[in-house]
Design a protein that fits this description.
The protein is mainly alpha-helical. The protein has 39 helices and 11 strands.
């Protein structure tokens, strides 16, 4: 089969309507089945730009060994090379990717298992795969997905196990957040840093595109799919089969001309692809002429490259929607792209490789120059161009000059001071960002150190560097130490954080203004470290209070400082037993951080979650439900950490359970259980589900869920959650009529609570004793049940229990009194129960409606009426 015939058929198919393509393919298949298969793959490559495809002459050899059947036969639960497949994450033309985990359970970590759709045949293929594996293993960068494992199955099927990245494509991330051009460029620097790191390790990516560049919820970029990279080791280039095989794995719309033509691949190939990605990131479209509202095809790509120059980004065919996604009008977006950005993108997209930027680092440097209003290297620095940029950089002083000579002296001093302060702040911000980036980017083991450098060791090295190198810049040094102290906190190294944050605060108090955001954030971080490591709550309160009061300006960073301070003060209030103040402070924190991050940000969602949890603990269930519902709504549109999303969804299920929305709680928990999670997380979910089934009166499913919770829990009875889970099992056993087992289980629970230090009148113990009394009643031991409930009622009189728990106890007591023939006492108990339940529950709650029924029944009779069973269905 000839290349010419394949390309001719491809052109015919691209030119035809979709309805005509199937008949054309049938015609081709009747004449040449092999050619049809090849053309179909090429057609898919041209029409599906978001998947890695193989195209043209350079892929003819590689496609003959495709192993599509192996990918088709993969199933959930299958174990390959020690990894259990969970679900398929996606597939392209050359590989399928599955979410997987270690089957032996030694490492609790989900990974992405990538299986190329080909079988290695012969020594040359094995050597090539080994080189690719070693190339991947050499990469260690915060913006590159890590390689964990790689190998070859007995069938010859290779596999690669990579870090699983929970993120969304770069372009989608920016569009969802309506980031402006500057914000997009700052994010793009992470992409450039990752590619530059790979180039320094003699690797070319060769398939750079938005779907291979993911961004997580915290704005961290992760570059994927170095599995098709080619080593640039000249010493082996003449003999390495890698230079000849699979050389064309790529995505046509982002491929450099030399890739499409089968030419030599180099780092400049990635520079071109980065130019395409940058064009799409900033303009919203690719630099090709495509049908309006449609995507470019291979024909459009070849036609554009054939002209010798791609159109300028500022003249691209984007519309008002693209501009709106960048927070500007169409005219303003064109103006923003015109000039230096046009030049930078254009230089990256030169057809001849030697006319592009000669490295990714030089491309990054020109973008930094653009952002700082300095002349870029890609254009000749004429006088007017240089002067215009100088005026932009010094626009405050320049404006003063235009006012007139009369006031230029005083006004000039003021304007120049403002300019210096502004530039100093900007330089501090840039320096902190660059320093923190270099902290990870340049991390290497010191002499004598064996193994991988840990995050803690990197921070230790950075602290030494900040103290050593920035003594002449004390304000910058203080800010750096503050951020490093915060990193210690995130790593759980709270003791190490204290001296670093103490120094940060001392330095900034001497050299920064009182309302400096860095100073006041450092105060809050220090207070947080002290809160976690000492009993000096007065010092914690003082630092957080001072930080919040001092950072009174309207900047975003000060809003963050105030929000962090209020959040810590909420924890402080809870610690000293002031729940009302704790709730007041967390609500204040949520308001500040929503102001700082915006209403559709993950920080806002997580703070609303904390507000809801504290409201629930305070008995404000309706308010908690409202705030948590809002957190869920925000989270739906965000890419969160898996653990954060799970916590939000689980908390919503708890609120649903509290508010009597049992079906909603059941459905939400069953959905969570179906997702991958740590064993203890699944144990908690099963335990809550058991409580839901008890409320629904489903004894069989309640017991199964409780048993599953106990089985999933790590550590068995020594786990701190064991008594709560055992309690759920006891309630399910009682509902199932297995009374002796239920009583034995609840006795174990009460004993465990007391052994763990819970007071006899604590909420946990009193609730467990109520369950026990009701289990006695269900077992027909009415006299014992009545006495136990009366004793509990006396304890409740002096204990600080929630109105809902008190109401449930009184309803249980009312039922027991009625059984004993005490109709008047029963009626009084139910009346008081109704008043208690109404304090915290909505009128349509099942507990409230049941109480109304019990009140009515007790009022109508004073004779002994023996209910068959005491209702066991109450919230956990």
């Amino acid at each position: 089969m000839s290349d010419a015939a394949a390309l001719e058929w491809l052109d015919r198919l691209l030119s035809a309507d979709e309805s005509q393509r199937e008949s054309l393919l049938a015609e081709l298949g009747a004449a040449d089945g092999a050619l049809r298969m090849r053309v179909e793959r090429m057609l898919a490559a041209a029409l599906a730009p978001d998947h890695s495809r193989v195209l043209g002459k350079v892929v003819v050899d590689g496609l003959t060994q495709l192993n599509l059947e192996a990918a088709a036969n993969l199933q959930e639960g299958m174990v390959l090379a020690g990894y259990r497949l969970i679900r398929e994450l996606g597939r392209g033309g050359m590989a399928v990717v599955w979410l997987a985990e270690r089957a032996d359970g030694v490492v609790k970590r989900q990974v992405a298992l990538k299986m190329p759709m080909f079988i290695l045949q012969g020594d040359a293929d094995l050597a090539r795969f080994t080189r690719e594996r070693d190339a991947l293993a050499s990469l260690s960068h915060p913006n590159v997905a890590r390689l964990y494992d790689a190998g070859v199955l007995p069938s010859g099927q290779p596999f690669i196990v990579l870090e699983r990245v929970d993120g969304i494509p770069l372009t989608l991330y920016c569009d969802e957040r309506k980031l402006d051009v500057v914000a997009r460029l700052r994010l793009f620097f992470q992409v450039l840093a990752a590619v530059d790191h790979a180039h320094k390790h003699l690797l070319v990516h060769r398939d750079l595109k938005p779907s291979n560049i993911l961004v997580d919820a915290e704005g961290q970029v992760k570059l994927l799919d170095f599995g098709i990279a080619k080593l640039l080791d000249d010493s082996e280039a003449a003999t390495a089969p890698l230079t000849e095989q699979a050389g064309g794995a790529m995505t046509p719309l982002y491929a450099a001309p030399e890739q499409l033509r089968g030419g030599a691949i180099s780092t400049l190939t990635d520079v071109y692809s980065l130019g395409i990605v940058l064009h799409e990131l900033l303009a919203g479209v690719l630099p090709y002429r495509a049908p309006k509202g449609g995507r470019a095809s291979l024909v459009d790509v070849l036609e554009a490259q054939g002209r010798g120059e791609l159109p300028r980004a500022s003249l691209a065919n984007f519309d008002e929607d693209s501009a709106a996604a960048r927070g500007v009008t169409l005219a303003k977006l064109r103006a923003a792209l015109a000039g230096d950005l046009d030049t930078i993108i254009g230089k990256s997209l030169r057809i001849a490789p030697d006319q592009r930027y000669d490295s990714v680092a030089h491309l990054a440097e020109d973008l930094r120059r653009f952002l700082s209003h300095r002349p870029i290297a890609a254009r000749r620095p004429g006088f007017m161009y240089t002067a215009r940029l100088a005026l932009v950089r010094h626009r405050f002083a320049a404006t003063v000059g235009a006012v007139g000579l009369a006031g230029v002296g005083v006004a000039g001093v003021v304007a120049w001071q403002q300019h210096r302060e502004s530039m100093a702040h900007a330089e501090r911000t840039d320096a902190v960002r660059d320093f923190m980036f270099d902290l990870v980017n340049d991390a290497e083991a010191v002499e004598g150190h064996e193994g991988e450098v840990t995050g803690r060791q990197m921070v230790e090295g950075a602290v030494m560097r900040a103290r050593r190198d920035f003594g002449a810049q004390p304000q910058l040094q203080g800010e750096l130490l503050g951020e490093l102290g915060r990193m210690y906190l995130r790593l759980g190294a709270n003791e190490d954080a204290v001296p670093v944050l103490t120094q940060s605060v001392e330095v900034l108090e001497r050299h920064a203004t009182p309302d400096d955001a860095a100073l006041n954030k450092a105060r809050v971080f220090l207070a947080t470290a002290l809160f976690k490591t000492t009993d000096d709550l007065d010092r914690v309160h003082e630092l957080a209070t001072v930080a919040r009061a001092a950072c009174a300006n309207t900047t975003v960073d000060c809003a963050k400082a105030r929000g962090y301070a209020s959040s810590l003060l909420s924890q402080h209030a809870a610690m000293i037993g002031e729940p009302a103040l704790s709730l007041q402070e967390i609500r204040r924190a949520a308001a500040e951080l929503e102001l700082a991050f915006g209403p559709q940000h993950e920080e806002t969602a997580m703070l609303l979650l904390r507000v809801a949890i504290i409201e629930r603990n305070d008995g404000q269930l309706v308010e908690a439900g409202r705030n948590l519902q809002r957190a869920v709504a925000i989270a739906q549109h965000l890419q969160l950490r898996a653990a954060d999303r799970m916590e939000i969804e689980r908390s919503m299920a708890v609120i649903d359970l509290d508010l009597g929305r049992y079906e909603a709680a059941r459905d939400r928990l069953q959905s969570l259980i179906a997702r991958p999670a740590a064993a203890d997380e699944h144990a908690l979910q099963y335990r809550l589900l058991a409580s839901v089934f008890v409320e629904l009166g489903d004894a069989d499913h309640a017991l199964k869920s409780a048993v599953a919770a106990l089985a999933a829990m790590t550590g068995g009875a020594v786990n701190g959650e064991w008594p709560f889970t055992k309690q759920a099992e006891a309630r399910a056993l009682s509902l199932a009529g297995r009374h002796d087992e239920a009583l034995a289980a609840i006795d174990q629970v009460i004993a465990r609570f007391l052994a763990d230090g819970s007071a006899a009148d604590s909420y946990e113990v009193l609730r467990a004793k109520r369950y026990r009394a009701q289990m006695l009643a269900n077992a027909g031991r009415d006299g014992e049940a009545l006495q136990a409930l009366r004793d509990l009622h006396q304890q409740h009189m002096s204990a600080s229990t929630s109105p809902v728990e008190r109401g449930l106890l009184l309803d249980a007591l009312g039922v027991a009194e009625l059984r004993a023939g005490n109709g008047e006492k029963s009626h009084l108990a139910h009346e008081e129960a109704g008043a208690q339940l109404a304090k915290q529950l909505p009128k349509d709650h099942p507990y409230v409606t049941r109480n109304a029924s019990l009140r009515a029944g007790a009022k109508q009779t004073t004779s002994v009426k023996q209910p068959e069973n005491v209702d066991q269905r109450e919230s956990s």
